[in-house]
Each structure stands twice: as C-alpha cells, then as structure tokens.
Amino acid sequence: MKTVVIILFGFITGVQAVFGQNQDVITLGEQIVITSHILNEERTCLISFPDTYTNTSKEFPIIILLDGYAHFKITSGIVHFMGSQRSRNNFMPESIVVAIENIDRERDFTVTKINTKRPNTMGGGKNFLKFIENELVPYIDNHYRTTPTRTLIGHSLGGLLTLNSYLDENSLFDAYISIDPSVWWDKEMMKERVDTITPSSSNKKLYIATANHGETGNIKNKQRHDLLYELLSKQTEEAQNVNHEYFESEDHHSVLLLALYNGLKYINQPR
C-alpha cells in the first residue's frame, strides 16, 4: 500500500478565513490513497480528526463513511460538534471520520445483480466490505491512534450496504447508521437474510432513517422500511438495539443532515 497525504483546506463550508492582508488556513483533515489488492485498484479516503488528536495521546473510535466526497464535510462537522470537548456537548466520543470516495457505487454498494438492458457492474458489495474490513480498517489502525470501536454509515445504496454489513455475523463494526436505504434493490434477499440473523448482529446497534419520497414513491418506500424494522424486531431479542425513524418533512437528499445527528445520538446512548 502507498499513502499520499494532501492537506484539505477550509472548514465545513470550505471557506478560508481572511482578515485584512493575512490569511489563516483551517485544516479539516487529510487525504490518503490506498492500493487495494482485493479490489485491484487505488482508493482515496478523506480523514477528519478530533480537535484533541494532536495534543493528546488518546485513542479514538473510527467512523467509516460511504459516499465519502459527498458527505465528508457535513459528517465531520456533526461529529466534531457532538463530541466537542470545547463545547462540552458530550453526545458522543470524539471520533476519527474516514470517508471513502466513490469509483463505482453500483458495483461497490450492491451484493446482488438485477436485470438491466444496459451492461452493469452490480454485485461487488461483498468484495467492497472485504476491502474495508481487511485492508482499510487495519491500515487506519496501524497509522493512527484508534480504539476497536467502529461505526459504518451509508445513505441510499450505501445504506443498503450498511444493512448487509449489519446482517453479516462476521462484521467487525459495532454500530450502523443506514439512511434511507435502497431496500427495493433486492427486498426478497433482505428478508431471507433477516430471517437468519444471529446474536452477533442483533447485539449491535442499528439506526434506520426513512425519508418522504412524495406522493408517488413514499408509500412503497416507507412500507419497505416499516417491514424491515418489523422483521428485525421479531428476530432481535434486544429490541432496543434497533431504531427506525421516519422524517415526513425530509426527502431522500435532505434527510441526511437530521439522520446523521439523530443516528449518532442514538447509537451512542447507553444501553
């Protein structure tokens, strides 16, 4: 594996602070490039560190974020706010955010293929999870000060992959945030997997957010998510480990902001 470190400029808005003729640079994080032997390609990740990372010897939990480039700034901002020692919020521990940039979402976030008239690369999700668990996380653990506490966050197709990771009894994650997951992709497969859920999955925390898809799509979307939650609740002895929240006023895109905040707050509540 080779690593390229690039400083990212700007804060949550990406704006540099300029006062008179002096320019101050606020560093949001680092960019690394990892050569994956599992995927046979290089993958770029953006990393955000807690405020206290540089002036303490503490170790920190890690959050693996899918759709990294699109969601890196907003997620880093929320995580910083919720775990800020300066603001004394203490909603969650200070954490390291590792955001994976996309190459092929359809390939990486799906574990099955669906029939299409066009050629497609679907169904590579299991390999992508292997990359995360066998290459990316060990790399992060070896190069940064981390604890074994790990959270996976995904939206849309990324939310679908997050669910598939949760249902994998060998998954190394401790908590999962699945934001408006695309369970329509293979709802029968999802039902089969829920039916065979093991205690290693049901003892972990899962937060599912559902958005309002409007008059034409909302009934089916909400029904699928309601059914998924119902199936999980029946299979999970510790029902309080799974939380499902419907955002009537938010669509598929706007739901991300509130779901990140509420999801992080939920998975960090004491059991």
TrEMBL record:
<dbReference type="InterPro" id="IPR000801">
    <property type="entry name" value="Esterase-like"/>
</dbReference>
<dbReference type="GO" id="GO:0016788">
    <property type="term" value="F:hydrolase activity, acting on ester bonds"/>
</dbReference>
<dbReference type="InterPro" id="IPR029058">
    <property type="entry name" value="AB_hydrolase_fold"/>
</dbReference>
<keyword id="KW-0378">Hydrolase</keyword>
<comment type="similarity">
    <text>Belongs to the esterase D family.</text>
</comment>
<protein>
    <recommendedName>
        <fullName>Alpha/beta superfamily hydrolase</fullName>
    </recommendedName>
</protein>
<dbReference type="InterPro" id="IPR052558">
    <property type="entry name" value="Siderophore_Hydrolase_D"/>
</dbReference>
<dbReference type="Pfam" id="PF00756">
    <property type="entry name" value="Esterase"/>
</dbReference>
